[in-house]
Amino acid sequence: MRLSRSAKVVLGVVSGLVLLFIYTPLMLVVVNSFNADRTFGWPPKGFTLEWWGKAFDSPGVREAVVSSLWVAVVATLVSLLLGTLLAMSLQRYKFFGRDVISLLVILPIALPGVVTGIALNNMFTTILGVPLSLWTVVIAHATFCMVTVFNNVIARLRRMSAGLEEASADLGAGVFTTFGLVTFPQLRSALLAGGLLAFALSFDEIIVTTFTIGAGETTLPIWILQNLFRPNQAPVVNVVAVVLIVVSIVPIWLAQRLSGDSVGVSEARVKAE
Amino acid sequence: MAIQTQHLPPGSPRGSGGVPRAKANTFSALLHRRPRLRLAALLTAPAGWLVLVYIAALAALLITAFWTVDTFTGEVSTVWTTENIVTVLTDPVYQRITLRTLWIAVAVTVIDMILALPIAFFIAKVAGARWEKLLVVAVLMPLWASYLVKAYAWRNVLAEGGLLEWLGAPIGLSSPGYGETAVILTLSYIWLPYMILPIYAGFDRVPDSLLEASGDLGAKPLTTMRLVMLPLLVPSIIAGTIFTFSLSLGDYITAQIVGGATQMLGTVVYANVGAANNLPFAAAVSLVPIAIIMFYLFIVRRSGALNSL
């Protein structure tokens, strides 16, 4: 499609404005983390490092980070296992109920978080009588993290030729040897990408978490939510937010480099023109 | 049950052929011979999890909606009643909240569609290969920059004496403050990447040669857009709308942070699980977004959008 020069410029400007819209509020949080004024009026009247010091000294933040990391790691491991098994069975076999299961796996992300949250809360507390804890959060997170691993692995499986596995079987390798020496190495980067996305999703999750977490426990998002409306803590929340913005760049950048399957970025395309 | 695998069926000539085999462990050999057993071994854990954890929970939710709470003990009592559901459907308060939530979700979806289409098109079809990569990462990055951080950022933008007021003052505009408009604005902001990415992936899959051909046959860019691109893009756009619509429909945290007194369905659910301690009523309220999303998924299921999620 041959676009006129002015059409391209207009599109470029609109895209630039959308990016500006995306980044301005985030930049405001960064600036406010140094804002000397507690009410964060704009423009800032002075700058200080006080909040950064307070954030790093806060035991509440530290505990919340540790819980968040633990939940995210365990949920990621569970979803890696389940997502991979599911992708292999749906991609390699045709069976009765296959479509139902492929719909089931997207349901936890297609339905609003509040639904997943209350459904699991109700099952744990009313039906099973299990006390809420970090473990119930892990179960909830693994349920919706599974789909990111599943998506990455199934995309990779579609591009892998089955010939190598057949050859391996023909040469006498058992099912497990073939998986370990032939299939797994080809899946590795897709697993890493899916795992990173699952980790990021779990680390950031708030809605489902509020419904499934035990009374005495906090994850980082829960801590942020609890402290958002406390005038003395709000500046510290800004600092934690900035750290989160910076830290979240790492997994997304890595996942982007590793997979490419999810949005097709890595496929080098030669542009017409 | 038809099973299709790339392996030869058991007993085929090659399987029993003369090639000497390494001594396989018997379990592995059994799995190799029996594709159905292999499938069962792969499928049991994940399908079991989805059914036992998720479907069971949804089913339990549906049942709980028909139960009630003992007003003295505060415990859920398993007395069957349709009272909760009738209240949710007929009480004008909940009707208003449902309509407001629907309106917010639709507004967010439309705003995101309008913002996402040009930038997704620009990234996929106009920007050079190098810029394309950079722009995708630029759009992706805030996707993972914490939901709360973004809602909170908007609280700062919209606050009294905040950035928006400062920007708007010279041209006589004021900040909308905390309320319904703020919720729509903030949710549009938070879910925007969920709309841009599928639409970008959709544009990316449309081969350039198709667009060239359309141009060669005399179509102007806008005609090509309408007759060639849009039909191919529909599944991607719908995939994006599923995200923005569903995520907005269930939100209550943004409503808490920038919504002022704005109540959404999620707010009611949360209040009834926590403070009011009325799980059956919360369950009944949550059936509303479930019904709306299921209805939407049912309408769009033929479009192929579910594969683009």
Short description:
Chain A is 74% helix and 0% strand.
Which whole number gives the mean pLDDT of chain A?
A: 83
Mean pLDDT of chain B: 83
For this entry, what is the oligomeric state of its chains? heterodimer
Report the sheet-strand fraction of chain B: under 5%
How much helix is in the residues of chain A? Answer: over 70%
Count of distinct strands of chain A: 0
Which value, in Å, is the CA radius of gyration of chain B?
Answer: 26 Å
Shape label of chain A: globular
Outline the structure in words.
The complex is a heterodimer of chains A (273) and B (309). Chain A is mostly helical and 273 residues long. Chain A has eleven helices and no strands. With 309 residues, chain B is an all-alpha fold. In chain B, 70% of the residues lie in helices and 1% in strands. Chain B is built from 13 helices and two strands. In chain B, strands 1-2 form a two-stranded antiparallel ribbon. The longest helix of chain B has 35 residues, at 92-126. Chain B starts with 25 loop residues before the first helix and ends in a 9-residue tail after the last helix. The model of chain B is unreliable at 1-18 (pLDDT under 50). At the A-B interface, helix 1, helix 3, helix 4, helix 5 and helix 6 of A face helix 1, helix 2, helix 4, helix 5 and helix 6 of B.
